[in-house]
C-alpha cells in the first residue's frame, strides 16, 4: 500500500489557497462601528429597531411571553418536526392571508429559520419544484437577495424600482422591466417598508404589478420582513400580498419575525404558499408543504423552538397580541417622529439637496442620496456609520444624536461636492 505523502502537492495546496469571500456590505459596517472607540460613534447601518435610549428593543409582550415560557414545567429541548411549530405557522398564515383564506385550505405554511431561510426555501421551491430559471430582483435591493438567487440555481435579473432623482418608486420602469420577464420567472417583491429605499408602492400600483404578473404567468415571491413596521397596521402592510391573492394569483411569502417581534437572534420566520384554486381530488397545499419540508430537511433539518414558542404565544394570546399591536404603533410613531426631526434639522440648516422624501418613505430605512465619498467622510470624520449606498436606519436615531447626524450630513454635503452620482 502506498503511504500518502504528508506534504500536500502543489496543486492540492493551491486548491485550498482561496481568496477571502466578499464582506457583507451591511455587517462589515456594523463591525467597523463596534471597533470605533469614539464616544461620538453613531450606528445607523444595521436594520434593527432601537428605542429612544439607543438600545435594541424588547417588546413588552415578547418579554411577558418569554418569562412565562421560562417558568413553564413542560419546556423541553426535543427536536421540532421538519415543518417546525405548527401553531406558529398557522398564526403566521392568518396574519398574512386573513382568517377566511387561511380556513379555505389553500395554504401551505412552514416555520423556518427566520426570514432568510424562508427566502432561500421560497427560491428553492420556485427553482427546483416549479422549474423557474430566472429571478427578477429590485434595483436597489437588500444585498442578500442578490446573493441568494444564484445560490438557488436561478439566473439573476434586475428590474427598476427606485428613481434616485425623484426619490420615489419608479413604477413605470418597474412595470416595463417586469413586462419583459419570461413566463415562469420569479419576481422577488418586498411587501412593505422596502429595504433599502423605504419607498413602497400604493395599492393601485400593486394592482398594476399584479396585472403584469398574471399576464406573464410569473411566480411572485413576497419578502415580508417588516409587516406592521411601515404603517403601524398589520393589515395595511400586507395589502400587496392580499391584492395578488384576491386576483387569483398563486403567491409565495417569506415572513420574518426578526423585526416586528424584535426576535433577531432567535431566528423565527415562515414560508408559505397560497394557491388560488383547489384541484379536485388533489391536496395541493399538503403536497406543497411536503415539498417545502423536503427542501428544509436538506437545508437545515428543522428550525429552533425557543423564539417560535414566544412568537406563537404573543400572536395566539389575546392580551399579549393586543399589547404587541399597540407597541408596534408606538414604534412606528417613534420612527415617524425621527423622520420628521431629521428632515427638520437638515432643512433648518439649509443643507443643499432633497430631504422631503425622508418623511415620505416608510419603515426603518431611507436613502439619503449621498455619494460614496460623502458616506466615507461621514464615517471617517464624523464617526457615523451608514451603508455605502447612503441608507440610514432611522430607528438608530434619537434625541441625543439626530442633530449630530444632521450636522455631519450638512458638513459632508458642503465640503465634499463631487460630480459622482449618489447611491
Ligand atoms: C428585506 C429583508 N428581507 C429579509 C430579511 C431577513 O431577516 P431575518 O433573516 O433576520 O429574518 C431582512 C433582514 O434584514 C431584510 O431586510
UniProtKB/TrEMBL annotation:
Transmembrane segments annotated in the record for this chain: none
InterPro entries xref list: Aminotransferase_I/II_large, Asp_trans, NHTrfase_class1_PyrdxlP-BS, PyrdxlP-dep_Trfase, PyrdxlP-dep_Trfase_major, PyrdxlP-dep_Trfase_small
Transferase among keywords: yes
SUPFAM superfamilies: PLP-dependent transferases
Catalysis: reaction(s): L-aspartate + 2-oxoglutarate = oxaloacetate + L-glutamate
Cofactor(s) essential for the protein: pyridoxal 5'-phosphate
Signal peptide extent: none
Domain of life assignment: Eukaryota
Similarity field: Belongs to the class-I pyridoxal-phosphate-dependent aminotransferase family.
Subunit structure: Homodimer.
Note from the entry: In eukaryotes there are cytoplasmic, mitochondrial and chloroplastic isozymes.
Protein name: Aspartate aminotransferase
Provenance organism: Chondrus crispus (Carrageen Irish moss)
Amino acid at each position: 500500500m502506498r503511504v500518502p505523502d504528508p506534504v500536500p502537492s502543489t496543486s492540492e495546496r493551491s486548491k485550498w489557497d482561496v481568496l477571502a469571500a466578499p464582506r457583507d456590505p451591511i455587517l462589515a459596517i456594523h463591525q467597523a462601528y463596534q471597533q470605533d472607540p469614539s464616544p461620538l460613534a453613531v450606528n445607523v447601518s444595521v436594520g434593527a429597531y432601537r428605542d429612544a435610549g439607543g438600545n435594541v428593543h424588547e417588546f413588552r409582550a415578547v418579554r411577558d411571553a418569554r418569562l412565562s415560557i421560562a417558568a413553564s414545567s413542560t419546556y423541553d429541548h426535543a427536536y421540532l418536526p421538519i415543518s417546525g411549530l405548527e401553531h406558529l405557522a398557522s398564526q403566521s398564515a392568518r396574519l398574512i392571508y386573513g382568517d377566511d383564506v387561511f380556513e379555505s385550505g389553500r395554504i401551505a405554511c412552514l416555520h423556518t429559520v427566520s426570514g432568510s431561510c424562508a427566502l432561500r426555501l421560497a427560491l428553492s421551491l420556485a427553482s427546483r419544484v416549479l422549474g423557474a430559471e430566472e429571478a427578477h430582483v429590485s434595483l436597489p435591493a437588500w444585498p442578500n437577495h442578490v446573493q441568494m438567487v444564484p445560490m438557488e440555481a436561478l439566473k439573476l435579473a434586475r428590474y427598476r424600482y427606485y428613481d434616485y432623482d425623484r426619490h420615489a418608486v419608479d413604477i413605470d420602469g418597474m412595470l416595463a422591466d417586469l413586462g419583459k420577464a419570461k413566463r415562469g420567472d420569479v419576481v422577488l417583491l418586498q411587501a412593505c417598508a422596502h429595504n433599502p429605499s423605504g419607498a413602497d408602492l400604493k395599492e393601485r400600483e400593486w394592482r398594476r404589478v399584479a396585472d403584469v404578473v398574471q399576464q406573464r404567468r410569473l411566480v411572485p415571491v413576497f419578502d415580508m420582513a417588516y409587516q406592521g413596521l411601515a404603517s403601524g397596521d398589520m393589515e395595511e402592510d400586507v395589502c400587496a400580498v392580499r391584492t395578488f391573492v384576491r386576483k387569483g394569483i398563486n403567491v409565495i411569502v417569506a415572513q420574518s419575525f426578526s423585526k416586528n417581534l424584535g426576535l433577531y437572534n432567535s431566528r423565527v420566520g415562515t414560508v408559505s404558499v397560497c394557491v388560488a384554486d383547489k384541484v379536485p381530488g388533489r391536496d395541493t397545499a399538503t403536497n406543497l408543504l411536503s415539498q417545502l419540508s423536503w427542501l428544509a430537511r436538506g437545508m437545515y433539518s428543522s428550525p429552533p423552538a425557543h423564539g417560535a414558542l414566544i412568537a406563537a404565544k404573543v400572536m395566539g394570546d389575546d392580551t399579549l397580541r393586543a399589547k404587541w399591536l399597540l407597541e408596534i404603533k408606538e414604534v412606528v410613531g417613534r420612527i415617524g417622529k425621527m423622520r420628521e426631526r431629521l428632515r427638520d434639522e437638515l432643512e433648518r440648516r439649509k443643507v443643499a439637496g432633497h430631504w422631503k422624501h425622508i418623511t415620505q418613505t416608510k419603515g426603518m430605512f431611507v436613502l439619503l442620496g449621498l455619494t460614496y465619498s460623502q458616506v466615507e467622510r461621514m464615517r471617517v470624520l464624523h464617526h457615523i456609520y451608514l451603508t455605502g449606498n447612503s441608507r440610514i436606519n432611522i430607528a438608530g436615531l434619537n434625541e441625543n444624536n439626530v442633530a449630530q447626524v444632521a450636522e455631519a450630513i450638512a458638513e459632508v454635503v458642503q465640503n465634499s461636492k463631487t460630480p459622482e452620482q449618489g447611491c
